[in-house]
Specification:
8 strands, alpha/beta, binds phosphoenolpyruvate, 11 helices, eight-stranded parallel beta barrel, TIM Barrel, 250 residues
Length: 250
């Protein structure tokens, strides 16, 4: 039985005051969420505040939105996995489509980030997903398989025991266009079957989240699918009530 996980990706949003209010709201409501594991991924600079607020007895974990491939040294502007662990992060997002498309991260870089995250005791949330033109050209499975293979070749199937996968069709991120539950389930099943070819036990245990315009109104139907184990939530994670209602749908 896979425990559902709902993780909020705040992206580059929020002042310290906004984050404080949001965290207080999530902290207060999270007690009433039974089954679903909850996590928030704020911008780096808000992680210390998040750690302060959530470490005091909440059942909400936190994580980074990215990390560097290096451990320490002359990498101006970067943040390492060790630094994230030092601030109590459990998770780190790797390979978000915005990192891939805006910052040019290729599959090899994403795989290195996944590896270094695990070396620092973080659970990577590995994002995969196709562009609209790739879906229209019937390339969804090819793209997702290529993105997964980069990680599997570098880290092996065993690495998936301490990882989360997020299927995020790029055309659904921040657009208000959600994949239908059937479209999402088909790709989730493809991912799980691909892992099953390598190790059926690990494939059966890995959590595969859906991300792309999830809201409280559509979460339950998506999360009810056999291979959807929760969500990676962008915009809707900036509103505590909406986010908690998504968590309740898990
Ligand atoms: C995301 O940022 O990973 C995401 C899924 O965003 P949104 O929920 O806003 O589409």
């Amino acid at each position: 039985m896979r425990r559902p996980l709902v993780a909020g990706n705040w992206k580059m949003n929020g002042s310290r005051a906004d984050a404080g209010k949001l965290l207080d709201g999530i902290f207060q409501g999270a007690d009433s969420v039974d089954e679903t594991e909850i996590a928030v991924c704020p911008p780096f600079i808000l992680i210390p505040l998040t750690a302060d607020k959530l470490a005091r007895g909440s059942n909400v974990a936190w994580g980074g939105q990215d990390l560097d491939t290096h451990t320490s040294g002359a990498y101006t502007g970067e943040v390492s996995g060790g630094m994230l662990r030092d601030y109590g992060c459990t998770f780190v997002i790797v390979g978000h489509s915005e990192r891939r498309s805006i910052y040019g991260e290729d599959d090899a870089t994403v795989a290195s980030k996944f590896k270094v995250a695990q070396e620092h005791g973080l659970i990577p949330i590995l994002c995969v997903g196709e562009l609209l033109e790739e879906r229209e050209a019937d390339q969804t499975e090819t793209v997702v398989a290529r993105q997964l293979d980069a990680v599997l070749e570098l880290c092996g199937i065993e690495s998936m025991e301490q990882a989360v996968i997020a299927y995020e069709p790029v055309w659904a991120i921040g657009t208000g266009k959600t994949a239908t539950p059937e479209q999402a389930q088909a790709v989730h099943a493809f991912i799980r079957n691909k892992l099953r070819e390598l190790n059926s036990t690990i494939a059966g245990g890995v959590r595969i989240l859906y991300g792309g315009s999830v809201k409280a109104a559509n979460a339950a139907e998506l999360f009810a699918q056999d291979d959807i184990d929760g969500g990676l939530i962008g915009g809707a994670s900036l509103d505590a009530d909406e986010f908690l209602n998504i968590c309740r749908a898990g």
